[in-house]
Amino acid sequence: MNAPFGHVLTAMITPFDGGGAVDHRRAYELARHLAETGSDGIVVAGTTGESPTLSDDEKIALFTTVKEAVGDGTHVVAGTGTYDTAHSIHLSEAAVAAGADGVMAVTPYYSRPSQEGLVAHFTAIADASEVPVLLYNIPGRTARRIEVSTLATLARHERIVAVKDAVGLTGFTTDSRVAISADDLAIYSGDDINTLPMMACGAVGIVSVASHLAGRQIARMVHAALSGDWDEAGRLHLALAPLARSVFLEPNPMPVKAALSAMWKPVGDPRLPLVTATDATLAAIKEALAVAQAA
To answer: What is the DSSP string of 19-63?
Structure first.
């Protein structure tokens, strides 16, 4: 299948040290850990990476650190999209210089451009980029959906190769796959809980948060579906479902950062306005992770 960034990508958190600065040593270690536990690719400085609180310099330095950590064996996709087209182009150019294999461009948020504006925005980014572009369709955060007809138009661009579909509707995924050839636009699930249903509709994999904790199990599920073993994929999907729910009990990435600090290595607290996840959320994640790891 056409999977330009692999089948399992992790939307990586950004580790902070005790003073709140980006912890590059821990970011390097985490990127290596993710690559060794099932991730084909890593998305850096996306929403899970707390991109709204990162400066341009911090983002660019992170792109470099993660690429140095994983080398050429793992795709590094830089989160460079903003609600300012010129700014997005600047970050995309800087990401390429830092070694990124692709860039992720989110739907412009708050300004809510028209569909024609979305075409112009994403086309300008792709025109300026030297690497493939992953669109990020998440209307729950941006208040604007990239409609199927718009995706079809954008898919004609040679560097717009995939979309992270976090619309949350398998009907939308189905309509996208009916309207657009898989060769022209790969679809990645943008929600852990919807990975398997979306793969049944033509998605090639997942941009995951839960893979910080259960990357091997998620990779097994995805590859079972790809090989046509839907019974095994379904069994793993059900075992992973409690974890997929628990890592979103509070605003992302609060829960997964708390879980990593408790069960892997310290990654710091989120930057304000996000805060540390509650003990109840952490307990739910631990319980769900035990179920996933037993699968």
So the answer is: TSSB-HHHHHHHHHHHHHTT-SEEEESSTTTTGGG--HHHHHHHH
Query: Which amino acid is located at 176 in the chain?
Result: S
DSSP 131: S
**Per-residue model confidence as pLDDT tens digits over 52-101:** 999 999 999 999 999 999 999 999 999 999 999 999 999 999 999 999 99
Secondary structure E strands in 143-294: 160-165, 186-189, 205-208
Split at pLDDT 50, 70, 90, the class of 1 is: confident
Could you tell me where the beta strands, DSSP code E, fall in 80-199?
102-106, 133-137, 160-165, 186-189
Domain 8-227 top-level CATH class: alpha beta
Distance CA 82, CA 183 (A): 27
Q: What is the distance between the alpha carbons of residues 40 and 215, in angstroms, rounded to a whole number? A: 10
Positions annotated as catalytic residues are 136, 164
Question: pLDDT exceeding 90 applies to what percent of the chain?
Answer: 100
pTM here is 0.97
